[in-house]
Amino acid sequence: MVKIDKNEIGGNYPTYIVAEIGINHNGDIKIAKKLIDAAALSGCDAVKFQKRTIDVVYTPEELAKPRGNPFGTTNGDLKRGLEFGIDEYTEIDRYCKEKDITWFASCWDEDSVDFMEQFNPPCFKISSASLTDDNLLRHHRKKRRPIILSTGMSDNNLIDRTLEVLEKENLILLHCTSTYPSKIEELNLNGILTLKDRYPNIPIGYSGHEIGLSTTIAAFVLGACMIERHITLDRSMWGSDQSASVEPHGFLRMVRDIRVIERALGDGEIKVYESEIPMISKLRRVCS
């Protein structure tokens, strides 16, 4: 098991549900707060953001590429326009405490990890894109916080190699397909079972980018101890991740259904319930 704040994750504990806000705030703190509101209303456990040091993560050539966007004409204008700084994250930290919801972030470079440390995060998330960045993996581990690792764009050998660098303690793995939105036939939900068999001492969860909710519910039923889905105010909003995200009413329904199924699954013991006893004398025919 891994502990994030007051929540134990893994084993028979309730599924930990994360609303990935990511960059769906479109660089606007007001939208970010509306997304926090929607996540809190849904009953999920945490919201997640993304943090980058733009000039470290992207090359000058990449930033200079022409790209029309609300912030300017280049890819650099877009990346900088979407990036929150100290003022925004201070307000996010205050607002999440007000709403009594946990928050943390995916950090794409070492400086971003150090930046997030000032907020005393309960854990760090490492994205699938960073799975091969050994220096970043080691830098995360220096902070001695729980780590959530997505495994998109990877096979078993690559995951094994990453775990050698990252260590296996205080770690959660998320099965993931890194396309936005993901094709249903490429979700490979049975991969959750493969990861559970291959790493029996590591909690296994699911990070989904598909359209719809049924496959995410199926991931939970297959044993995912953590569910992460992107949240948006409106899937038609501008932004690269919006179409692979879940709108507030859908997120509310997803959390509700997972909690209902958790109760319905029970402990697996076949037994007579006290509520059934009156029905025995009423309906059952006893044969000698």
How are the SSEs ordered, and which strands pair?
Layout: E1 2-4, E2 7-9, E3 16-22, H1 29-42, E4 46-51, H2 54-57, H3 60-64, E5 66-69, E6 72-74, H4 75-82, H5 86-99, E7 102-107, H6 110-117, E8 124-126, H7 134-142, E9 147-150, H8 156-166, E10 171-176, H9 191-198, E11 204-208, H10 214-221, E12 226-230, H11 248-265, H12 277-283
Parallel strand pairs: 3-4, 3-12, 4-7, 8-9, 9-10, 10-11, 11-12
Antiparallel strand pairs: 1-2, 5-6
Helix pairs in contact: 1-5, 1-11, 10-11
Shape: globular
* Number of beta strands: 12
Question: Any idea what the radius of gyration is?
Answer: 21 Å
Helix content: 25-40%
Q: Write the H/E string, N to C.
A: EEEHEHHEEHHEHEHEHEHEHEHH
Q: Spatial order of the strands in the main sheet? A: 7-4-3-12-11-10-9-8
The description of the largest β-sheet is: 8 strands, parallel
Category by helix and strand content? alpha/beta
Portion in strands:
15-25%
Report the total helices: 12
Architecture per CATH nomenclature, i.e. the level-2 architecture: Alpha-Beta Barrel
Question: Termini distance?
Answer: 51 Å
Structure write-up:
It is a single chain. With 288 residues, this protein is an alpha/beta fold. It has a single domain, classed as Alpha-Beta Barrel (TIM Barrel), CATH 3.20.20. The chain contains twelve helices and twelve strands. The strands form three sheets. An eight-stranded parallel β-sheet has the order 7-4-3-12-11-10-9-8. A two-stranded antiparallel sheet has the order 1-2. Strands 5-6 form a two-stranded antiparallel ribbon. Strand 9 (147-150), helix 8 (156-166) and strand 10 form a beta-alpha-beta unit. Helix 1 (29-42) runs parallel beside helix 5, helix 1 (29-42) runs parallel beside helix 11 (248-265) and helix 10 packs parallel to helix 11 (248-265). The longest helix has 18 residues, at 248-265.
